Task: structure prediction
Amino acid sequence: MDLVADLPLMLTDFGVNATLSVGGTATGVFDNGYVDVLQIVGSASRAFTGSAADLAAVTIGSTLTIDSVAYTVAALEPDGTGVTRVILK
Amino acid sequence: MSTRETVLAAIAAQLSGVAGGRVYRSRREQIDALPAVVIEPVSAEATEVVLGAVDHELTVAVAVLANGETPDGAADATLVDVHAALVADRSLGLGNGVTLLPGFSTDWDFEAFDFVRAENRYRVVYATTGTDF
Result:
């Protein structure tokens, strides 16, 4: 299985579009799950996973807008296979 | 009820006007709005016995939970309010037998980029007799 080659197919099925404040758009899988913070505070754990090439210009502190909500990039996690996970807050 | 419990309840009462009233004791249920204050006993020690009287020192954590771009900064105003409310009456409304000591320590625990638990630890001294603690 070639992950990079298959990535567009996966994103077609499961991806959403994000507008990048650094310019352009990207398609990726948006995870927006619940997480406990400080043990007793409810919050969200958000990440956007997409093609490293599409997300190459994204920087810490820039924003991704998904469904009209702007999220700030807190961390970038390239996995070395052509996929980057963008941690959002 | 023990004097220890009375002291903890008095601290909660003295802080009732802080953080929009979101002041909790030993909270374990989810908190849905910040900032909030959580009061927790940390340790208690009976240090001396003189003529049947026992001197106690109770360490209490008063934690401010907050979130913001600079989390410790976001907690600061509430932490100031907490401290001001407590030192306004070091007897905690319980009279001369109870004293909140001037010294305190502060710790910060950061999590999930924007959240902090900023905790002041205070020591309260009081004396009891008989079986009370």
